Amino acid sequence: MSQSQRFEFRSPHGIRKIESQTRRWNGITVRNIVHYPDPGRAWHDLSSHETTVAIVLGQVGGYCESRLNLSRPTPRSRFDVGHTTFVPANTTVWAYTDGLRSVRELRMSFAPKVPESILGDDLDSAKTDTPVLLLYDDKVARCAELLAEECQEPSSGGRLYGESLTTALTATLFTRRNAIQRGNALSPWQLRRAMEYLEAHMTQDISLEEMAKLVGLSQSQFARSFKTSTGMPPYRWSLYARIKRAQELLLRCREPIAFIALQTGFADQSHFTKTFRRATGATPKDWQRSRKL
Predict the structure, then answer these.
(1) Predicted structure pTM score
(2) What CATH number is given for 3-137 in this structure?
(3) 116: which of 88, 171, 179, 194 is 20 to 30 A away, CA to CA?
């Protein structure tokens, strides 16, 4: 579940209020944060005993940026949102704003060894040692926006979805340049084992990490190879399989919709109905009725 909790910045100046929702996947604490600065200039220290990645997703008013020196602006040609700042553990980097009424960001905190546990041999360790300021990368921004939504209102993708997003974002930032170009499919035995696991645990909170270990790959390697083999990421394949199972139950049994929701791994009828309609274009009841005419 999403958790709203008190969150404080290090060495804050001019920060009036902070709101946040927190989730955790892959050993990564993920926060959707909205902070409201006082009028004029405001700042805080992004550093932590953990590694930090911060992606600015929205701003109202002036502008914000990350700085290595609080009194020295970072050279930049863009002032819009979508930029990422990477802060190695115990490294001082300042978040600075001027004239903003609010800033919305996705912030990830994790132990320095976490990227290696997710990426394995794909990790470019040189990328984890040096701060990065104001990086604009569309894939990182898209993943961050989806993670922020998941912090606010969890979807039907469960643990597999959150782990997939954090893996994709981590891979984009820290993978060796030539690793992603290797689009190898899973071997027949790896694909068979993965499919058997998905089928057997369809209604459970499946873990990307567990599936990757099952076939001897890192999470990023497994996710990439699974998509090459099936045409879709693991969380989407799992979701479509649950929808297909629900359709079979809707056709052959007279159980209530709430019962079918639970039988296919959804938290409740409302969650099931919303997801089913998004996937098929109709509510479960309407879909069932149209097939029985």
Answers:
(1) 0.89
(2) 2.60.120.10
(3) 194
H helical segments located in the chain: 114-119, 138-152, 158-174, 188-200, 208-214, 219-230, 234-252, 257-263, 269-280, 284-291
Any idea which fold 247-291 has? Arc Repressor Mutant, subunit A (1.10.10)
Confidence check: pLDDT of 73 > 90:
yes
The domain locations on the chain are 3-137, 247-291
Nearest to 79 by CA among 91, 96, 94: 96
Distance CA 102, CA 2 (A): 22
Computed over every residue of the chain, the mean pLDDT equals: 92
Give per-residue pLDDT as tens, 184-243. Answer: 899 999 999 999 999 889 888 889 999 999 999 999 999 999 999 999 999 999 999 999
CA distance 168 to 139: 9
pLDDT grade for 178, boundaries at 50, 70 and 90: confident
**One fold for 3-137 and 247-291:** no
Rounded Cα–Cα distance for residues 198 and 212 (Å): 12
| Alpha-carbon gap, residue 123 to 220, rounded angstroms | 10
DSSP letter for each residue of 43-61: EEE---SSEEEEEEEEEEE
d(CA 252, CA 247): 9
Q: Tell me which long-range contacts 251-257 makes (C-beta under 8 A, separation of at least 24).
A: 251/288, 251/291, 251/292, 257/284, 257/285
For residue 8, the model assigns a pLDDT of 86
Under DSSP, is residue 228 helix (H, G, I), strand (E, B) or coil? helix
Which residue pairs, CB below 8 angstroms and at least 24 apart, start in 19-23? 21/151, 21/152, 22/151, 23/147, 23/150, 23/151, 23/154, 23/162
